[in-house]
TrEMBL record:
Signal peptide positions on this chain: none
CDD domains (UniProt xref): YdcF-like (cd06259)
Bilayer-crossing regions: none
Coiled-coil ranges (or none): none
Protein's name according to its UniProt entry: Protein SanA, affects membrane permeability for vancomycin
InterPro entries: Cell_Envelope_Assoc (IPR051599), DUF218 (IPR003848)
Record organism: Saccharopolyspora antimicrobica
Pfam families, alphabetized: DUF218 (PF02698)
Amino acid sequence: MWVGLVGLVGIGVVTGLPSAWAFARSARRIRSASDVPETEVGLVLGAGVRWDGTPSLILQGRLNVARDLYDAGKIRRIIVSGSPESRGFSEPVVMRHHLVSHGVPDDSIVLDESGVDTWRSCVRAAGEFGLRELTVISTDFHLPRAVAMCRRLGVDAHGVGHHAAADWRLQRVAARGVRREFLATVKAFWYSR
């Protein structure tokens, strides 16, 4: 009986501690577009490209948040970070094209084709780009982990999210994302230590 109880406590620590870490590290740092502090750079994390070379709906939501922040003067440059190979397309190139076609000047957009996952995007922002502060732009369920990871690397990060569940076309995707995020947060906590 004690072995089973100890096992359950151990599982609870291994899975619960990472979520507590992400929420503690991102507390009061996830903001709305209107109350996020101004930063020089917004970091948009990739979320897939469709077969026709356009951003997935979830990625379009993130890019629209970035455009709104840019238009409001909350950010002055945008790093689009993603995989160089997403269904035969460079995800950052697709992201840049979407932003430019929606009025963001091309010279305000920086490509990061090494951001194949959240950790690598944060590492590149801190190391390669030398950023000490930024605004992470992602889907709302992903922000606690993304902000926590950037902060783990010494970046003063805030986050603004796209609320995917509010779009009826994305409700199932958002529900899957929330479930996936739990496991990704466990991995991120132990990986980034």
